[in-house]
Amino acid sequence: MTTPALSPRHDALLRLVRAATGPVQPGALEQALKVSRPTINRALRELLAVGFLEKLGNGRSTRYVATDAAKAALGALPSTAPTAEHGLMQWSPAALPLIESLRAPLGTRAPTGYESSFVDSYIPNQSSLLPPQLATELFNAGRSRDQLPAGTYAREVLEQLLIDLSWSSSRLEGNNKSLLDTKALFELGEQAAPFDEDALMLLNHKSAIEFTVDAVPTEGITVPVIVDLQAKLMKDLLKDSRDIGSIRRRVVNIAGSVYSPSNVPTVLEETLKSIIDKVRRIRNPVEAAFFLWVNVAYLQPFADGNKRTSRLGANMPLMLYNCAPLSFLDVERSDYATAMIGIYEQRNVAAAVDLFEFIYRRSIQKYSVLRASLAAPDPLRARYRQALNELMQFVVIHGRTLEDALSQVPVAAADVMALRVIVNTELDQLEQYNCARYNLARSTTQRWIDAARLR
Questions:
Q1: CA nearest 438: which of 380, 378, 379, 397?
Q2: Which of 187, 251, 328, 435 could form a cystine bridge with 168, CB 3.0-4.6 A?
Q3: Whole-number Å distance between alpha carbons of 226 and 318
Q4: Which of 413, 411, 404, 405 is nearest to 438 (CA)?
Q5: What does the alpha-carbon distance between residue 174 and residue 167 come to, in Å, rounded to a whole number?
Q6: Confidence of residue 15 (pLDDT cuts 50, 70, 90)
Q7: Which CATH architecture has domain 8-80?
Q8: Mean per-residue pLDDT for 225-237?
Q9: Helix axis angle, 223-234 relative to 265-281, nearest 10°?
Q10: How far apart are CA 427 and CA 383, in angstroms?
């Protein structure tokens, strides 16, 4: 069967629906794509007609999910932005000379060391590593319009962010666990022991992200917070415990590069303080995120975990200003290495700018859809509030199958499919800490979870 030719708007809409954790409302798509509701509705009808979407519910309860045909076809569809899963990261003309120079054999590239002028010459709110117009555009696209306490955006999407950022950051370090493996590991937690190194890396990322979400809104961006972040990330992964949560006191080598970072502990400590001081004074949180990401990786202040620390640290300014988080999804390791080596060897950020823009635009799209879906009132949930309680109790307390439970609760035929999706999602996400909303006891809930969430 020939894949229908779809427009860039169809492609963008379809990818957003596929990326969502559950059925998506048209209003969430409207907000994410910044187009009118009639345009969204027309595109949805056209995608329904070719079998790429399935409609759940009616009226205000209408939601959409991607079909198996859509998931299979997305690999063949043209995309409005390059995707790492297809190896289509596109470098701008400004980055191409840098990319070409980095293709030269290592033996022909001049060795280089750390240049303090990269930080020293930067003046917050006068200098800019990102093109100023791009930094402003990304800030306007990613920021929350609501006047909310610092860290609220990150907390609202935390469940998905923990999986996305832990997996993508670990994958860039060579971790072999899949996204599904990561989700399963986080659900099992300590019950998944014993852990291999890949599992430890993922669990450390989860702990580190939770730490930043708690610490940054109250403590701000400080050197101790950055140091504690590295300690969280590297727990049980280094042979010498003195390398965890402390400034580096030994030589590090950068694989595939002729760059040699400074090995003077006082220089590393003072420069890290300077980096954090400047980050705190940058008014645009997107520029601050980029500055922190680039400079922590370039300085290499720790014995190990510098790139991990820089990626999670880059989210700190975004958290403070309630911007969409930066999850680093869909990045090829080779593209990431190219961007970093361009900074290491030439202090040239052209490739890093391209990569940052690519990953942050994708993050903004994903989390704006997720957040809108979470925030929007759900008419179907409101209508079946009591029925939803009964269905959860039938399954968890009485051990009934979901289909049997649905047959016992009054539900309009047109709403059964959509309600089934909601109940399955709630059962997937049910834990001791959130079971009280369905009048479920913690012990009963844990027994049901231990029994493999039978339904």
A1: 397
A2: 328
A3: 15
A4: 405
A5: 11
A6: confident
A7: Orthogonal Bundle (1.10)
A8: 97
A9: 110
A10: 19
The tokens for 59 are 């009226």
pTM of the model: 0.70
Residue 400: CB partners within 8 Å, gap ≥ 6?
394, 408
- Do 90-372 and 8-80 have the same topology in CATH? no
Domain limits, the chain: 8-80, 90-372, 379-450
Any idea which fold 90-372 has? Fic-like fold (1.10.3290)
- pLDDT the model gives residue 401: 93
Q: Is 236 left (phi over 0), alpha (psi -120 to 50) or beta?
A: left
Residue 400 has a CB neighbour count (10 Å cut-off) of 18
State the Cα–Cα distance between residues 338 and 351, nearest whole angstrom.
7
The percent of residues in the chain predicted with pLDDT above 90, rounded, is 60
Contact call for residues 203 and 195 (beta carbons, < 8 A):
yes
* CA 358/CA 244 separation, integer angstroms: 32
- Quick: pLDDT tens for 35-91: 778 888 888 888 888 888 988 888 777 888 888 877 766 654 333 333 333 345 789
Q: Which amino acid is at 234?
A: M
Q: Alpha-carbon distance 100 to 349, whole Å? A: 14
Q: Give the least confident one: 59-63, 253-257, 297-301.
A: 59-63
Q: Which two tokens stand for residue 26?
A: 């048209």
Q: How far apart are CA 424 and CA 433, in angstroms?
A: 18
d(CA 250, CA 304): 10
Q: How far apart are CA 332 and CA 395, in angstroms?
A: 42
